[in-house]
Amino acid sequence: MKATVKQWLEEGTVDVFLGYRMVAGHPLPFCFTREKIAVVDDLVVGPARYALEKIATHMAALRPEIKIGLLARDCNQRAVNVLCIWNQLKADNIRTIDINCCPSDLKAHGDCSYLEPEATGVWKREVGIDNTQRPEALEAWGQAERFGRWMAEFQKCIKCYGCRNICPVCFCKECSLEHKELVGTGTLPPEVPIFHLVRAVHMAGRCIDCGLCEDACPVDIPLRLLYRKVNAIVAETFDYATGSSPDQPPFSIIGEKVALTPRPLEADDVPN
Amino acid sequence: MSLSGEAGNLTVTVRRHPRYVDVEKCIACGLCAEKCPKKVDDAYNENLIPRKAVYVPYSQAVPLKYAIDAQHCIYLQKGKCGACEKHCPSGAINFKDTEKTVEINVGSVILAPGFRSFDPGRLDHYAYGTCPDVVTALEFERILSATGPYGGHLLRPSSMKGKKATGAAPRKIAWLQCVGSRDQNRCANGYCSSVCCMFAVKQAVMAKDHAHDPLECAIFYMDLRTQGKDFDRYAEKARSNGVRFVAARIHTVDWRPGTADLGLRYVDEGGQLHEESFDMVVLSTGLEVNPAAVDLAENLGVDLDRHHFVATDSFHPVATSRPGVFACGVFTGPKDIPQSVMEASAAACAATEPLAAARHTCTRQVRVPDERDVRREAPRIGVFVCNCGINIGGVVRVPEVAAYARTLPAVVYVEENLFTCSQDTQDKMAGVIRDQRLNRVVVAACTPRTHEPLFQETLVAAGLNKYLVEMANIRNQDSWVHADNPDAATVKAKDLVRMAAAKAFLASPLQETDLPVDRGALVVGGGIAGLTAALALSRQGYPVHLVDRDKALGGQARRLNTAFQGEPVGAFLEEKIRQVQADERIHVHLETTVAGVEGFVGNFETTLHAKDGSTTVRHGVALLATGAEEYRPSEYLYRQHPAVVTQLEMDALLRQDDVHIDQANDVVFIQCVGSRNAQRPYCSKVCCTHSIKNALAVKARNPEANVYILYRDIRTYGTREDLYRQAREAGILFFRCAPEDPPRVQSAGGRVEVVFADPILGRRMAVEADLLCLATAIVAPAETELARLFKVPLDADGWLLEAHQKLRPVEFATEGVFLCGMCHYPKPIEESIAQAQAAAAKALTVLASDTIRVGGVVSYIDPRYCSGCLGCIQVCPYAAITYDPEARVAVVNQALCKGCGACAAACPSEAPVLLGFSNPQLYAQIRSAVAA
Amino acid sequence: MKDTRTGGAARGAAMVVGGGIAGMQAALDMANAGFYVYLVERSPAIGGAMAQLDKTFPTNDCSM
Asked: Would you say residue A269 has pLDDT above 60?
């Protein structure tokens, strides 16, 4: 792998290469360059996960023609696809080296930090939501209970914006979460649930289910679960598999093919 | 009405009937009708309910002014009463009104008197007029309508006492087709009315929709004639949703008075007799020309055909026998709404062609005062609350709403009106704006879709920017839907007014600029449609670039022999081509394709590729007339056996006096080859008529030959039905073949054996044919590049998709681009010509204006917030947004933007600002909505 | 521009007889193309037969 990276840099296949390097015992993202090619020997692959492609978008914004190589797990690859679709990266300018991901029939070894879910405490299971559940499992609760449990989770929020800042597909210059008209300011917890639902809606057609938001969340809100639900709706309604290929057009809600049938509000829909 | 003078300068004498109501004074408050003691059958509601002798025909009537029905008015008949005059608050009643004769000098006249629905009262075997539950199609339409006699509830007339139902709703409804159509014996209407099949299918679907309980719908038809664009799809969908189609003509409706049973007896195609009862029967009554229109034609010297339709030839579908007089709509033959709309535009084009030199000589320019700059003024809002007669005032407590409006921030003036939209209110409003120095106006009334332009005009007349008016819809969205709850409706009206005032507070004047219009037109496609359009535009004085990828002009028409009335196509086409080539204003580009299109309405720049290089032409409008192709079948031994030919090849054989025709003993035509199947679920529209015409031509040359036509439904719509009758009289044999059991063809030496099932004889038949003619489908060209270049949509079958199937049949959502001919849908020559003239008429509305106005409510993308994600570009239905790769942001072309707001909704940030609907305005509105 | 087809000065105005969908459409198109139009209708209101229809294929738009 190191040989490949060196070769790419030397031959000009890429101008820079984004990977990890050990700093004080921690694998941190690092930008390897042609000028200091010897440093490539320090390239490591470990359980650390960063949105390297997000760093790539910042670079591309400054120098649109720069060719970037990066280490990519499956989730990074999906994020690259989405970022190409949304015109934040140019597919021609990105080269990836696939690295281990979740184990599967094809991959014996996996090193994703999601492989060992933390044990969920009793209290969280009682009144909140167990992060390790599947979205379908939540449907077993009635609407009112589900709403109550989500509110219990959302109320822990300290509005650190960690979920957004780490998100590989968040790239907007102007973020709705900081929009005074949409999300009020000056209170903690932030306006609940509007803060989280605004973000959830903006994830439609973007979230590639990497789970970094949940990793980053200091109060353990099951954000990945929330956006998985969003993705399920997007998949069912628009037949749109977010991140699965770089060829899809941006998620577009206007067209002949899509007809949303509104469901009348039921009494159960409105929590007391 | 009478006519004198010559084409281009006619004097028309028109009799103006007395209305007995002064339209200048009438405010349509409705008091006169409330007080009028005389009840009259309401013709608008097909006489199902009464109206008063003083009336407006229906609540949305234009003009919304009352009239007195002199035949029934007690005062006018007997000299006593005058209740309306006593109660009219504006003194509008004028019993002394008299008939006036007016002379009007015009260049051309267009006749569009429409039709009347066949009156089945003339027939006694349908129980119409005796059993109230036997109704005509129009009566049924009124029953389904929310503004109809039963408020839109599907109910049986026999169960009605006034507006209340006393019996059960219908459970089983039968539609009987061809009542007063395709009938020479019981009425003299031998033609097909063209519209009733689709009308019945739509009604059956709507009836099922309206019914609360399961409803059985059965349509009894002879041939299902759903030949229009997307009609077959609709009919198939109706069939899969449970609408039953029975191929049988019902002779009699058996009704025993006192029962709810309407008995129908019919023989199915297998010869089996059935008896079935229904509790409601709809007679699909045909269209016929009104006797008054027949008189009119006679007065004006316009020739009619044997069915009383205007005699037109296929190449001049809107011209009459009298120069200067044109006709359109059902008067020239039975037709549906899209076809009527097309013909109307065609007539507009043909009628103004000889008047082109006098364009703009009789029109008047409106003068407007200079606009006041209000940008530095603090908002001063005036609120006008409308009663809309009793439409709003009858439910919402308008004085309370007005008093509330006075308490709102920046509101300095409030007024209540009976009709805010009336002309006197407009004059007054303009005065108030000036006197009170208002700089924002809120009208709490009805919908901006219909009335905003009116109030905008008033603002302009008062020197205000027209975008400073805001409407609160307290009628459609309030009083109409909450008629049963005046308290809640009044609260909601206040909410709506408060929201509108909050939005108006932040309104700012929007700028509009004029861009010049290039006077040239580009016509793509040199077939009959393209030639017609090019000539029409040139004769109206505009230069035309006519582009065809072929070596010669003429398109598919070169391969046709005659139009349906027997007119030879060849000579006509040659003459057209000669005229085009001789025309100084038409520049013909042969063997040329369109390679690139830039710009927008009024200012297109198109790159043309020819063999000898590329050129760029500038033009204001583009007309697409790229035509269609013949389906090349793989079935029925085509190209494997010499006896098998397509319809166009048959035309060639006839044209060349081929011996095969003269020597043939048996000639078979198979219909719907490649049409109406899973791959192409549409009807190719022309093939039935074409086959019958060719079958008759074969018979004429070779009377001894046996000629067979194997069909699914014979679709000789309109007066083409005469041809079908002639064919049967000439001994041509027709066999209906079910789509599940199509004919089979195998080689038999120099002939082919055609085997098919005849349902009536219940037997399989075999014919050894010397010639087998396949009525092949018309298919859309596989090439779709042109649509992409002009940013216009294609439908599922590959036809260009017009802006609105009924009301905008030659336009696209993209302004300045029009379509005509077979690229829209398969159609016969006369319809292609009419559509080409229609497209030219629409193009003229652009070319005749020196400038186009851009701006107003359009989107602007703030580059500071744009992340360049392309989301807005994907959702923009007008292709008005492009990506600037330098600045890496999206940019709106305001000439293309229609202000729909899709970009603003799609943007994850708030980069697009929809002017007039800015986010701060909308947030203010929302805040104000929840502030109550 | 001299007019050669009508032999004399053509009028820049036209008349439409009938205020149904066809008549209204013809009148609008001529007016928008720069001609003065007289629309003549027998009944007290324009709209014609289409105004009687409830909904129309294929959009199910209200006919009004």
From this structure: no
Peptide bond into C58 cis (omega under 30): yes
Residues 6+ away with beta carbon under 8 Å from B465: B371, B374, B459, B509, B510
Sign of CA dihedral B494, B499, B502, B505: negative
What proportion of chain B, given as a percentage, has pLDDT over 90?
A: 83
Of A174, A250, A254, Cβ closest to residue B910: A174
- Domain pair B18-98 / B521-628+780-850, same fold: no
Token pair belonging to B860: 């602007």
Residue type, B108: S
Class of domain B630-778: alpha beta
In-domain check, residue C47: yes
Q: Does B460 touch chain A (CB under 8 A)?
A: no
Q: Where are the domains of chain B?
A: 18-98, 117-288, 291-358, 381-508, 521-628+780-850, 630-778, 856-930
B309 contacts B333 by C-beta, under 8 angstroms: yes
How does pLDDT run across B284-332, given as a tens digit for each residue? 999 999 999 999 999 999 999 999 999 999 999 999 999 999 999 999 9
Entry pTM: 0.83
Which chains are adjacent to chain A, needing at least 3 Cβ pairs under 8 Å?
Answer: B
Q: Which domain holds residue C41?
A: 14-62
Task: Give residues with Cβ within 8 angstroms of B424, minimum separation 6.
Answer: B27
> CATH code for B117-288?
3.50.50.60
B266 is written with which tokens?
């019919």
Interface test with B, best of A173, A191, A206, A247 (most B CBs within 10 A): A173
* Residue at C41 is within a domain: yes
CB B263 within 8 A of CB B272: no
Which residue in chain A has the smallest CA separation from B876?
A254
Can you read off the two tokens belonging to residue C50?
């289409």
Distance CA B556, CA B648 (A): 9
- Enumerate the residues of chain B whose CB falls inside 8 A of the CB of residue C64: 60
Q: What is the ipTM of this complex?
A: 0.91
- Topology, domain B381-508: Rossmann fold (3.40.50)
C contact chains, 3+ CB pairs < 8 A: B
Element spanning B327, H or E: strand B325-327
Q: Into which CATH architecture does domain B521-628+780-850 fall?
A: 3-Layer(bba) Sandwich (3.50)
Do B621 and B579 touch, CB atoms closer than 8 A? Answer: no
Return the closest-CA partner of residue B377 out of B461, B432, B436, B462: B436
Task: From B248, B283, B266, B253, select the one nearest B120 (Cα to Cα).
Answer: B283
> Is there a contact between B262 and B236 (Cβ–Cβ < 8 Å)?
no
Name the closest residue on chain B to residue C15, using Cα atoms. B109
Q: Which CATH code is given to the segment(s) B18-98?
A: 3.30.70.20
Contacts of B657 (CB under 8 A, 6+ apart): none
Q: What share of chain C is helix, strand, coil (3-state, %, to 5)?
A: 25, 25, 50
User: Does residue C48 form part of some domain?
Assistant: yes
Which pair of tokens denotes residue A229? 């639900």
Q: What is the pLDDT of residues B379-407, one digit of tens each?
A: 999 999 999 877 899 999 999 999 999 99
Question: Which residues make Cβ contacts (< 8 Å) with residue B531, sequence separation at least 6?
Answer: B546, B553, B554, B573, B576, B577, B580, B836
Give yes or no for B884 touching A (CB within 8 A).
Answer: no
CA separation for the pair B773, B649 (Å, rounded): 8
Look up residue B318 and give its DSSP letter.
T
How many domains does chain C divide into?
1
Bridging pattern class, strands B50-52 and B39-41: antiparallel
How is residue B657 written in tokens? Answer: 């006096």
Q: Which CATH architecture has domain B856-930?
A: 2-Layer Sandwich (3.30)
Give pLDDT, residue A260. Answer: 45
What is the C-alpha to C-alpha distance for residues B467 and B570, in angstroms, rounded to an integer?
56
Q: Does C26 contact B at CB distance below 8 Å?
A: yes
